[in-house]
Model the fold of this input.
Amino acid sequence: MSSDRLSRQIAFIIEIDKLKSILRQTLITDGSRRENSAEHSWHLAVMAPLLAEYAPEPVNVERAIRMLLVHDIVEIDAGDTFAYDTHGNESKAERELQAAGRIFGLLPEDQQREYRALWEEFEIRDTADARFANALDRLQPLLNNYRTQGGTWRIHKLNRTQVVKRMEPVREFLPSVYPIVEEYLSDACARGWLEE
Done:
């Protein structure tokens, strides 16, 4: 192992620590604060083996976990774009593409290609692993919002139609889990946590 290779790996490891300071809109389930992107990625990685049995197509859980652990690393440079921010989402892809080049570029070339490919696969959703990972990425904030009595739904005055649209990958790629989504949304609307 060359010292240059190890130096590049260490530089990447140190750089990704910055993900801990990227705050998302989603509150943690006790409602005390916003979660950070590193916490979000960890939460999804734990969810993957727990919920893999509900995937309608075979999933490589280890690959999905790896995808989930790197999918938001680009937010170090690009920031977390709130899912319902139409203006922010206009430039999201470009900002994240630039971030991917810089951050994954810190790694040795073979790992740079591997990590970038995982990130791109997650974004494109053209494999079973990516579809499963993306569905988990949509499901987790819904669970947190429900547990915090509407959390960001209430803060941003979101309505059921907006959230249902956002949950489309869960309906499509985790159909046996989707009834929970419907149940939570109906209850949230009935309680006034989410606008009808």
Q: What stands out?
A: Strands lie at 23-27, 34-36.
